[in-house]
Design goal:
Oligomer: single chain
Radius of gyration: 20 Å
Number of helices: 7
Shape: globular
Order of helices and strands: HHHHHHH
CATH class of the largest domain: Mainly Alpha
Strand content: under 5%
Largest sheet: none
CATH architecture of the largest domain: Up-down Bundle
Number of domains: 2
Helix content: over 70%
Number of strands: 0
Structural class: mainly alpha
């Protein structure tokens, strides 16, 4: 095997945002079975080190492709777009206003211990995140519009972080 191959090639998958998760899981399990360091316990030091390196690489590939955010980011990088680069922060003003309004709603729900309001905010945010994932699939897989997908990914990242903050807020009001 070749360490320079991309994660899709390593896992015998076609490069795409839309992935069959069962195929990903199966490819991961097969490779981990083949290269798991325990299988090389009686091998020489060089073979053991190589098995650990391959196992690590297989885990990295699996974790990256399993996550919608990481998968989209990786696909964009394969196509020369570094969407999460610190110099690439342009966002539409309307989207940023929505984010500010969402943050204000989150603070208000926490301050009022409003579990129902928090749940409504979570449902709304999750629906928007799902819409952006569908948009990413179209931009990446159907249109190969990588610059547009980069912007969509940055928006998705905002929502992903916001959902984590909402989850933390549940703990705060309980």
């Amino acid at each position: 095997m070749d360490f320079s191959q991309d994660y899709y090639t390593l896992l015998h998958l076609q490069p795409a945002f839309r992935l069959d998760m069962e195929s990903l899981d199966r490819a991961y399990r097969e490779l981990q079975t083949e290269f798991h360091p325990d299988r090389f316990a009686h091998a020489g030091d060089a073979e053991q080190r190589l098995a650990v390196q391959w196992s690590t690489r297989i885990n990295e590939a699996y974790q990256t492709l399993k996550s919608p955010f990481a998968r989209a980011k990786y696909l964009l990088e394969l196509n020369g777009i570094h969407a999460m680069d610190a110099n690439n922060t342009a966002m539409p003003a309307a989207f940023l206003m929505q984010q500010m309004e969402g943050r204000e709603a989150l603070m208000a729900a926490v301050a009022a211990s409003d579990y129902d309001g928090l749940q409504a905010l979570e449902n709304q945010t999750r629906a928007e995140a799902d819409r952006l994932k569908q948009e990413l699939a179209i931009e990446l897989d159907d249109r190969q519009d990588y610059p547009a997908a980069g912007e969509t990914l940055r928006k998705y990242r905002f929502l992903d972080k916001f959902l984590a903050d909402i989850n933390n807020a549940y703990e705060e009001i309980e």
